[in-house]
C-alpha cells in the first residue's frame, strides 16, 4: 500500500512550487545528502539503509536520517511506499524520486541554496518584483498584423478516436484569454482533407497551417468527410508540402500535431520558416496541452521559440515521459527567437 504522498499541481504555478519546496528542502546537511542520494543514479526505490550508505552516513545518524526522510516525504520532495520485498534488508519503507521534483530539481535546489532569491521572483501569490504594465490601445492593435491560423483536424477512424475537438476548444480558450487575441484568427476546418486544406490556403492566406490527427512517418491521415462510412486516407508529407507551397504567399510555420510527424523533416522548408512536429507517438492530453500553450504564447506576442518552449513545458507538466516528443525544425539561417507572428 502506498504511503503519504502530497498532491502537487505543477501546472498551477511551478515557480511558486519550486520556491516552497526549496524552502522546505533547506540547507540541513543530512537532509540534503539524503535528497541527493534519492535523486542520484538509478531509478529503483531504495531503503533508508541503502540511502544512508549512498549518502555516506553511519549508524549514529540512523534516527536523524529517518527524521529527515520523513520530512522530505511529508513535503512532497520524495515519494515513500511500503517495502514489497524488493529490498531484503528488513526495511519497512522504500523511498524514490518524485517525477515533478526530478523535472524541476535544479530550480528547487537554487532556491534552497539562495533563500533571498525567492523574494525577487514574482509569482501568482507574491508579485514581488516591479511589473511594468503597458497599455495597448485599439488603434495600436489595428496597426499590428493579423495572423490567420488554418487549423485542420481529422479523426475518421472510430477504432482510434482522437479528441481533436477538445483540443480545438482548449486552443480557442487559450487564445481568447491572450492580450493580442484580436490579432489572431483561428480558421477551424474539422474532418479535413487535402482539398479543404488547399481551399483554406486560398481563402485565408494563413501564417500558420496546423494539422491535428493521426499520422505516421510518411504523412498525415485525412478524412473523407462522409457521415455513414468515414474513412481515412494518408496524404504524404511531400504531397502536403507541394500543396502548401502552391500559393503566392506560403505560410511561415507548419504545425503537425500528430504521431511521428517529425518524419516530415525539411519537406516544407523552404518556403516555410519552421515546422513544429512530433518525434514519436503523442497522447491526446499531451497534444492538447502543447497546442493550447503554444497558441496562447503566439497570441501574447511571444516569439516562435518562446511559444515552442512553453508548449514543451505544458507537455512536461501533464506527461513527463513525452517532454522530448515535440520538435522544432528550422529552415537554414532562421532564428526562432526572432520570428514573431503576431
Low-confidence stretches: 1-5
Number of domains: 2
Number of strands: 10
User: Approximately how much helix is present in the residues?
Assistant: 25-40%
Just name the CATH architecture of the largest domain: 3-Layer(aba) Sandwich
Strand order of the largest sheet: 4-3-5-8-9-10
Name of the CATH first level of the largest domain: Alpha Beta
Shape: elongated
Description:
- The chain starts with 13 loop residues before the first helix and ends in a 12-residue tail after the last strand.
- Helix content is 37%, strand content 15%.
- It contains 12 helices and 10 strands.
- The chain has 2 domains: 14-120, Arc Repressor Mutant, subunit A (Orthogonal Bundle), CATH 1.10.10; 141-338, Rossmann fold, CATH 3.40.50.
- Helix 2 packs across helix 3 (48-55).
- Strand 6 (219-223) and strand 7 form a beta hairpin.
- The protein is elongated and about 75 Å long.
- The strands form 3 sheets. The chain has a 6-stranded mixed sheet with strand order 4-3-5-8-9-10, sandwiched between helices. A two-stranded antiparallel sheet has the order 1-2. Strands 6-7 form a two-stranded antiparallel sheet.
- It is of the alpha/beta class and 342 residues long.
- It has helices at 14-25, 29-38, 48-55, 62-74, 99-103, 105-113, 138-143, 164-176, 194-204, 237-245, 284-298, 304-318, and strands at residues 79-82, 93-96, 147-154, 184-189, 208-213, 219-223, 232-236, 253-257, 274-278, 326-330.
Amino acid at each position: 500500500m502506498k504511503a503519504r504522498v502530497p498532491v502537487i499541481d505543477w501546472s498551477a504555478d511551478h515557480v511558486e512550487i519550486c520556491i516552497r519546496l526549496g524552502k522546505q528542502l533547506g540547507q540541513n546537511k543530512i537532509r540534503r545528502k539524503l535528497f541527493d542520494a534519492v535523486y542520484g543514479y538509478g531509478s529503483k526505490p531504495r531503503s533508508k539503509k541503502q540511502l544512508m550508505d549512498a549518502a555516506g552516513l553511519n549508524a549514529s545518524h540512523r534516527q536523524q536520517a529517518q527524521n529527515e526522510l520523513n520530512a522530505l516525504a511529508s513535503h512532497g520532495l520524495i515519494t515513500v511506499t511500503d517495502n514489497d520485498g524488493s529490498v531484503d534488508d528488513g526495511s519497512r519503507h522504500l523511498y524514490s524520486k518524485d517525477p515533478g521534483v526530478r523535472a524541476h530539481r535544479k530550480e528547487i535546489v537554487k532556491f534552497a541554496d539562495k533563500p533571498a532569491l525567492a523574494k525577487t521572483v514574482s509569482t501568482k501569490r507574491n508579485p514581488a518584483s516591479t511589473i511594468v504594465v503597458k497599455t495597448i490601445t485599439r488603434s495600436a492593435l489595428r496597426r499590428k498584423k493579423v495572423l490567420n491560423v488554418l487549423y485542420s483536424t481529422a479523426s475518421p477512424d472510430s477504432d482510434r478516436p482522437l479528441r481533436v475537438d477538445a483540443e480545438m476548444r482548449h486552443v480557442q480558450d487559450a487564445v481568447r484569454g491572450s492580450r493580442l487575441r484580436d490579432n489572431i484568427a483561428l480558421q477551424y476546418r474539422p474532418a479535413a482533407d487535402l482539398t479543404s486544406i488547399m481551399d483554406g490556403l486560398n481563402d485565408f492566406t494563413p501564417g500558420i497551417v496546423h494539422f491535428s490527427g493521426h499520422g505516421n512517418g510518411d504523412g498525415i491521415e485525412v478524412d473523407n468527410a462522409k457521415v455513414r462510412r468515414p474513412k481515412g486516407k494518408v496524404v504524404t508529407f511531400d504531397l502536403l508540402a507541394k500543396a502548401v507551397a502552391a500559393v503566392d504567399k506560403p505560410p511561415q510555420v507548419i504545425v503537425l500535431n500528430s504521431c511521428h510527424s517529425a518524419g516530415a523533416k525539411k519537406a516544407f522548408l523552404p518556403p516555410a520558416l519552421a515546422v513544429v512536429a512530433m518525434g514519436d507517438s503523442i497522447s491526446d492530453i499531451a497534444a492538447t496541452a502543447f497546442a493550447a500553450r503554444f497558441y496562447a504564447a503566439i497570441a501574447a506576442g511571444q516569439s516562435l521559440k518562446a511559444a515552442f518552449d512553453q508548449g514543451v513545458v505544458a507537455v512536461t507538466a501533464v506527461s513527463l515521459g513525452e517532454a522530448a516528443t515535440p520538435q522544432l525544425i528550422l529552415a537554414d539561417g532562421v532564428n526562432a527567437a526572432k520570428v514573431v507572428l503576431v
